[in-house]
Amino acid sequence: MTTAKQWVLASRPDGAPTVENFRFEEVELPELSDGQILVENTFASVDPYMRGRMNDVKSYIEPFQIDEPLTGTAVGVVTESRSNKFKTGDTVRHFAGWRTHAVLSEDQAEQIDTNLAPAEAYLGILGQTGLTAYVGLTAVGEMREGDVVFISGAAGAVGSVAGQIAKHLGAAKVIGSAGSPEKVDYLTGIGYDEAFNYKDGDVNGQLAKAAPDGVDVYFDNVGGDHLEAAIQNANTFGRIAMCGAIAQYNDTEPAPGPRNLGLSIGKCLTLRGFVVGQYTHLAKEFQEKIAPLVVDGSIKYASTVREGIENMPSAFLELFEGGNTGKMIVKF
Amino acid sequence: MTTAKQWVLASRPDGAPTVENFRFEEVELPELSDGQILVENTFASVDPYMRGRMNDVKSYIEPFQIDEPLTGTAVGVVTESRSNKFKTGDTVRHFAGWRTHAVLSEDQAEQIDTNLAPAEAYLGILGQTGLTAYVGLTAVGEMREGDVVFISGAAGAVGSVAGQIAKHLGAAKVIGSAGSPEKVDYLTGIGYDEAFNYKDGDVNGQLAKAAPDGVDVYFDNVGGDHLEAAIQNANTFGRIAMCGAIAQYNDTEPAPGPRNLGLSIGKCLTLRGFVVGQYTHLAKEFQEKIAPLVVDGSIKYASTVREGIENMPSAFLELFEGGNTGKMIVKF
């Protein structure tokens, strides 16, 4: 009999979540049936979108349930197998995060090659994170060679990749915003042409200065004043890929939309929301075009790693304070 | 020497415009030069977009200038010609509205055939109005056969045409909102499948009831609560063509955007603003596909006609109170 430790949802947050919304507990796992594997997790991902799942609201993904274990992407090692697809010692990626061990059916896991790239990469740039960046720029933002591209939350997991992909796709200029001088330096270090610290204030003015010829594509991870600034500085037929709005995830009242949305009419702007789950048909294209650039080091990525499954909720909460550069990962 | 009476901008409105913002004056017109024509106007159009031109704000179209005559689409008869392109008695459409007579160069006017359709039609359904409706549904809203289409300001000049075009393009259901029981009856009379009176309140609830299977395309002429209701009821990959926001044109403070814009992410919605001037390359397609349906009576149109150039400002102001069904036109 294997014992697992896991995080369950203790209560739903009203506004900003706290560690009190999570409860750590021990459970006994069932014996394996045919076709199942036992996985011991080594890394797990915490992501901004999980905030939405803490609310009891129907969305594109099921909400977390009270007293039920949380889920999310994780990497682990197969320690027992009754599947012909996997053998003991295989490293796999799956969705049963937030726990030390999981019993999975063989179709719930996929093997990954940690000789090609480290496990962290499979949680981020080679996974949904990288695909999100790629899809947001291409299918959603319809980026074209020569475009001026602006990315908010640029030092985050998606943003840091999106900026580099934009350069590889021929953007004339890539501008990023982030929340500290260190992150601004990080951005120019990985290939952003310009970057600014939104905490210096006047996002609109800073963007106008960085983009004197206007913005053609805006990749929005933030919402709020960043979205307004992008609309204000957008060129005619500009495109806005709405990927996330972390500035508003903890609001208890619905946040007002951009006050200058009316400008989209005269400027013929397109604002398009997306979730990567609707664009998985582009995963193959991403693997062929972008993954090799990650493996050969042309596209760089960063992870912020916190140690110990017991610290997983606090690592998650750090996301809302900008505690991460690149992907936030917990190492068990 | 010909004398013309014309409306000039006396002052810029702060909030809702009044007749005091306009001044009626008499001017002497110059003698014709080679290539010029003198036109006596018979009909002129007043349109919601003119409200934006009363502000001193750079936009997709030049603002009106203080003490200068207003402009807009008009129809008139050539009374004198020094052009080989036009002869006395020709009926033409041009942009020198808001005045009794105009001296135009020959490339500023186009001949129209009032045997095919009455002059009013050329100011509306066979002009920019019809093209706006067509472009908004097709190139902007990417309407497909089988879509559920919702149109606000549906009894207005653009909306009343858009609903009929949507049916002709194979919409599964076309729903309209308007501001009186008479307009609601008008809509169902011209082919809308369902219509409701937004003044009855709860636009979101009324739309949800009319569109139990959700909305695929929303043609927005109104903004405000209608836009929020459309986002709320939109299906995944729904499209919103933002054509106008008459509910907000007289606001002195920037109106907040839709509070539920965040839903566009999970629903993968596209919101796309447009002005017809950026889509004139589709005018030929419109003339071929839609104009014949107007001429043969398959697509109906209404005009609200006010008499006398001296009443032109008040006819314009009526637009903001929903005084019109279909195109608002002034007959001189």
TrEMBL record, chains A, B:
Keywords carried by this UniProt record: Oxidoreductase
Signal peptide: none
InterPro entries reported in the protein's UniProt record: ADH-like_C, ADH_N_2, ER, GroES-like_sf, MDR_fam, NAD(P)-bd_dom_sf
Residue ranges constituting the Enoyl reductase (ER) domain according to the UniProt record: 17-330
The keyword Cell membrane is annotated on this UniProt entry: no
UniProt keyword Oxidoreductase, yes or no: yes
CDD domains with a match to the protein in the record: PGDH (cd05288)
GO function terms (MF aspect): oxidoreductase activity, acting on the CH-CH group of donors, NAD or NADP as acceptor
Domain of life: Bacteria
Pfam families with a match to the protein in the record: ADH_N_2, ADH_zinc_N
Entry-linked Gene3D superfamilies: Medium-chain alcohol dehydrogenases, catalytic domain, NAD(P)-binding Rossmann-like Domain
Protein name: NADP-dependent oxidoreductase
